[in-house]
Design goal:
Elements (H helix, E strand, L loop, with lengths): L2 H8 L8 H10 L1 E2 L10 H8 L5 H9 L3 E3 L3 E3 L15 E2 L2 H4 L20 E7 L4 E5 L10 E5 L4 E5 L3 H9 L20 E4 H9 L8
Parallel strand pairs: 1-9
Antiparallel strand pairs: 2-3, 2-9, 3-5, 4-5, 5-6, 6-7, 7-8
């Protein structure tokens, strides 16, 4: 990626062109399995979840799908029927999490501004962090990101979309670092592996990340 590309992408915001951040991610992330991208019935997903989804997220799912970045950051996809259930699935917080005072702990700047009931989980990390949207705005392209880290045991809010959040994560542009594990900070060639390909590889007795 050229310096001009980096400079222009760093000026992206959720109010401009959300899929632009996904275009930058496709230049950074290598899809290392045969499956790359998921086709989602977004109308059915909207009926199941009672909301539409951000444009950058829909573009990311089309480009990469449900899977993991460097065994660390997992991105989920929505269920498209009430009977469907899979491991990496967009969801609200569980009833037990909503009732847990430890979970309802926010960084000082965000205390009293948000409710756990308004969070929608789109991802997680291998370090047991939770990645969410705050879904209070009627325009999903304006949903900020909230991250609950197991290291700090609190939520921190980031005023950007999920694609920009991931892009800045892979560029090491978050200060302080927003997730509990720092291994991605030193990865100059990050890879994405679809969950179907990862499961198939382990079933075949091989580690798909060892190459």
């Amino acid at each position: 990626m050229s310096k001009d590309d980096r400079d222009s992408d760093e000026n992206w915001s959720v109010s401009e062109d959300p899929p632009a951040a996904v275009a930058s991610l496709t230049r950074m992330l290598s899809c290392i399995g045969p499956t790359c991208g998921d086709s989602i019935d977004w109308g059915s997903a909207e009926r199941i979840y009672g909301t539409s989804f951000p444009a950058d997220y829909r573009a990311f799912v089309a480009a990469f799908g449900s899977g993991t970045i460097e065994e660390m950051v997992m991105v989920f996809t929505p269920a498209v029927s009430s009977a469907e259930s899979h491991t990496l699935e967009v969801s609200r917080l569980s009833e037990s999490a909503l009732a847990d005072d430890v979970v309802n702990h926010w960084a000082l700047a965000d205390q009293g501004r948000y409710r756990l009931e308004d969070l929608l989980i789109w991802g997680s990390t291998a370090a047991a962090d939770t990645l969410c949207w705050i879904t209070t705005d009627p325009n999903p392209d304006l949903w900020p990101i909230a991250v609950y880290t197991r290291f700090d045991l609190e939520w921190t809010v980031y005023p950007c979309g999920m694609a920009e959040f991931l892009l800045k994560l892979l560029r090491d542009q978050w200060h302080p670092w927003p997730i509990s594990d720092t291994s991605l900070r030193h990865d100059t060639h990050p890879r994405f592996l679809h969950d179907k390909d990862e499961a198939a590889a382990y079933e075949a007795g091989r580690d798909p990340w060892e190459h």
